[in-house]
Fold this protein.
Amino acid sequence: MKTKSLKTEGSVVVITGASDGIGAELAAQLRAMGSRLVLAGRNESRLRAVGGPQDLVIPGDLTVAEDRVALIEQAVARFGRIDALINNAGRGSYYRATSAPLDDARSLFELNFFAPLHLAQLASPWLCESKGTLVNIGSIASQISLPWLPVYSASKHALASLTVTQRMDLRRHGVHVMAVYPGYVLTGFQEHAAGAMPPAEVVKGKRFAVTAEECATAIIRGMERRSELVVTPKIGWILVWLSRLFPGLTESRMERV
Ligand SMILES: NC(=O)c1ccc[n+]([C@@H]2O[C@H](COP(=O)([O-])OP(=O)(O)OC[C@H]3O[C@@H](n4cnc5c(N)ncnc54)[C@H](OP(=O)(O)O)[C@@H]3O)[C@@H](O)[C@H]2O)c1
């Protein structure tokens, strides 16, 4: 079945990780386009500062299953429908693969993989009813394994694989499923990550960075166009294709960073 594009005006959009960075920008742009928003994150005061008077703010920790259930239940109780779920909340972890603390690895997977999986399961009956949109915010690390972000890369690879299978399940119900692979986006992501700071050469990658505003615009354009994959900035496509065509070369290049 052909999926329909998101009509932003009047649509009910659930955004996780809306208190900061890309999620806060998505909220600002979608609100300006007339969407009705449900905003999730742990920091209630920041969510309220980001939110508009009509937005539904639902503070909670998305590593906790009960908080995910409450998010979807409260969204439906208020609006009676869900047109889009944007699984955006996530964090990094700058530990090497050989020394990453297991507790941190597990909690990172809970946020970056299990929360989007569970939320999509909870929201999919509503997305099927609205023939809506499911967006999973991955990373360029969904495609390329970054040795300075090993557990993060693994979680985003897992999320990318999940996104493909969700599309296989949901397309027949008219639901549009989209992955997003941002490269460097100018947000608080690095400061909010666990572990040491990234290597200096990675920080130099900032010269290719996009702002959260540019990233959010690309995501919304992808939702409107029913894209399967959005890579932003566009230069990231070079890395995506290099790694698909020359995996050995990409691995040895990453090893030298
Ligand atoms: N910035 C980049 O360079 C970049 C690149 C590629 C992909 N990404 C991806 O883009 C997404 C957004 O990242 P960002 O750059 O906007 O980072 P950010 O500024 O650090 O924002 C992260 C958001 O996730 C929320 N969050 C963190 N832990 C949470 C938890 N346990 N429960 C609920 N919400 C939680 C935070 O809100 P609270 O603190 O209020 O909970 C915040 O709103 C992430 O999935 C990230 O992996 C970012």
